[in-house]
Amino acid sequence: MKNKLLAIIKNQLLLFILLLIFISTLLQLGSWGLTETSEARYAQIAKEMIESGDYIHPTKMGILHYHKPPLTYYITALGYQLFGINEFGARFFLSIALIIQLVLIYKTSQLLFQNKRASILAVVLYFSTPLILGSIRNLTTDAYLNTFVLMAVYFWLRYQENKKYFWLFYLSLGLGFLTKGPLVFIPILVFQLVWLYYHRTKIKFSKYDLWGIIVFFLTCGWWYWRVINENPLVFDYFTGNQIYQRMVSNDAFNRGKPFWYYLVFVPVSLFPWVAYLFMSFKKITVQSKKTKILVATFFVIILIFSLFKTKLIFYILPSLSFLTLFVSNTLIELEEKYWRKFTFFLYGYFSLIFVAALIAVLLHKIELNFLYILILAFGILITFYGLKNLSWFYRNMYTLLINTIALVLFSTTVMSSNELLINSPKPIANFINTLPTKNIYVYNYLLPSMSFYTQKNVITLNNGNYTCKREVQFEKNLNYLKTYYNLENKEEIARLQSDFKIQNSVFLFRKKETLPEYIKAELIPFKNKKDFGKWILYYN
Fold first, then answer.
1. How far is CA 51 from CA 37, 57, 481, in A?
2. How far is CA 215 from CA 170, 221, 226, in A?
3. What is the pLDDT, as a whole number, of residue 331?
4. Count of H helices and E strands in the chain?
5. DSSP line for 399-430
6. DSSP string, 33-75
7. Exposure class string for 438-461: b at 16+ Cβ within 10 A, else e
8. What is the C-alpha separation between 119 and 324, in angstroms, rounded?
């Protein structure tokens, strides 16, 4: 029976791995609250779409929000329709996106190298990458954009062999453009140009490309045309604020980083398997044309994003697929002694994580039931004692897979037990929901999660924090002023002092904030004060 089961798993190894990954990412997916600022923002915008029925004009806490095209909101709203307006519904399609990415990694590897072992390895390496895992556990546009980039790369390669794939390539481009605008072009164009350069091929425009451009515009152009036709200022906003400023301004969206930012943080985000490269450096060769293309594409993408003034680590997600494909199809040529070395490195690495988690719990740095640490211990033990009959290559691959799954399950319990620590204000919202209050005043920080979790008026008091900057130029009336005060304007301070209602209200601010005297005066009538991590709540 055991041998029969192992034979089935071996014959359907990819399916087995994908099923195991999918189940592990869905378990307790809604057990921790939405995190600020990004995840709560996307979740709340999708919620407002469902509540208003307006799927053309995204709003965030009642104010028009054109920072991103709407596809991520649409996908999230579909999750709400299937599972309800909750955290699981918001995150569900991220797990679907991961499975699609893994399938595309496998198929692209097979298309390029026709090596099944290397393609399976690519899937496991890709899944175990912390940056990939972070993108599919936190609702943003990045995981979906990464999915569409992978789709476009795969279907472009197929398009080179068979013209019938042209529409799938341009459809993928259109979906990416409807997710994050022109950012989708960067990794795909880099890959195409590098591919054409190494193959000494000129760019050729055919009738299929003409039809493809039509497919592209039908996929994404309708929304851009609609909102820009209604308000031409939106076009200036897209090209100026959302594209040009992100490229040249250090102050854009508080995301300015030095040129070397990715050079430092990308290697860290690739642990543990990036260590394989250092441990076998003398054996790593870049000889074939296809491996040269993958390596060149990866480094050119990193270079381009390093030149941009605004940087976030998730921006370079689309580059990781090229590196993973190169690494898997290069390491596969190594002898067993190297895989033995890699495997013992993994034993040490995951044991170190177990010890660190144990110390964190014992020192009360994180709140967690002690038994949950056994998840990590189980992953280490099962791979150390249960895989002895396999070759070192497969022992390494399964050790990486099983312990990464153990880490996913463990991190889920950590996040659900430490919501304030991971920047989720859900515990605060739950407490406020027990109070007979109508208004939530939030000082100098935008909290979409408060709108998500409560049915109360969330009133933002902006005193210079970047999260509070609202794009009010698209508003057709002044209704937004009922829930938004710009305290950098003296007239707005006077309006707040006139409007402030102590009755049926609570006041929330971060401990690190220094409150102005006029705010302190308004807080005197509150009878109660409660600490929530880095937050303080005044209430009656």
1. 21, 13, 21
2. 6, 10, 17
3. 95
4. 25, 8
5. HHHHHHHHHHHHHHHHHHH-TTTTT--HHHHH
6. PPPTTHHHHHHHHHHHHHHH--SSS-EETTEE--SS-SHHHHH
7. ebbbbbbbbbbbbbbbbebbbbbb
8. 10
* 179: phi then psi, degrees, rounded to nearest 5: -100, -45
Cβ within 8 Å of residue 166, ≥6 positions away: 159, 208, 209, 211, 212
CA 303-308-311 angle, to 5 degrees, is 95
440 to 119, 219, 225, 326, 480: CA distances (angstroms): 52, 40, 37, 52, 15
My answer on whether omega of the bond before 108 falls inside 30° of 0, hence cis, is no
* Per-residue H/E/C for 175-198: HHHHHHHHHHHHHHHHHHHHHHHH
The neighbour count for residue 33, using CB atoms within 10 Å, is: 25
What's the farthest any 2 CA atoms get from each other in the chain? 78
What's the rounded Cα separation, in Å, for the pair 250 and 34? 28
> Do 137 and 31 form a contact (C-beta atoms < 8 A)?
no
Q: Which residues pair with 294 in a beta bridge?
A: none
Query: Cβ-count burial of 419 within 10 angstroms (0-12 exposed, 13-18 middle, 19+ buried)?
Result: buried
Cβ(167)–Cβ(212) below 8 Å: yes
Return the structure tokens found at 442. 């939030």
DSSP symbols for 232-301: THHHHIIIIIIIIHHHH-TTGGG-B--TTHHHHHHHHTTTTTHHHHHHTGGG----SHHHHHHHHHHHHH
From 196, 183, 190, 151, select the one nearest 169 (Cα to Cα).
151
Given this model, what pLDDT does residue 240 score?
A: 72
- Inter-helix orientation angle 38-52/71-83, to 10°: 70
Per DSSP, 334 falls in state S
Q: What does the chain come to in residues?
A: 540
The CA angle 449-454-458, to the nearest 5 degrees, is 70
- For residue 95, the SS3 value is helix
Tokens 């039908």 -> residue: 218
Low-confidence ranges of the chain (pLDDT < 70): 1-11, 242, 244-255
Quick check: helix, strand or coil at residue 27? Answer: coil
Question: Helix, strand or coil for residue 444?
Answer: coil
475 is written with which tokens?
């508003």
Q: What is the pTM of this model?
A: 0.94
DSSP 463: S
Q: Report cis status (omega within 30 of 0) of the bond before 272.
A: yes
| DSSP secondary structure letters along 483-495 | SEEETTSHHHHHH
State how far the Cα of 86 lies from the Cα of 84, in Å rounded to an integer: 6
Closest CA to 230 of 480, 478, 476: 476
Going by DSSP bridges, is the β-strand pair 535-539/457-462 parallel, antiparallel, or unpaired?
A: unpaired
Q: What is the pLDDT of residue 503?
A: 87
Token pair for 276: 């394989």
- The two tokens of residue 339 are 């895989």
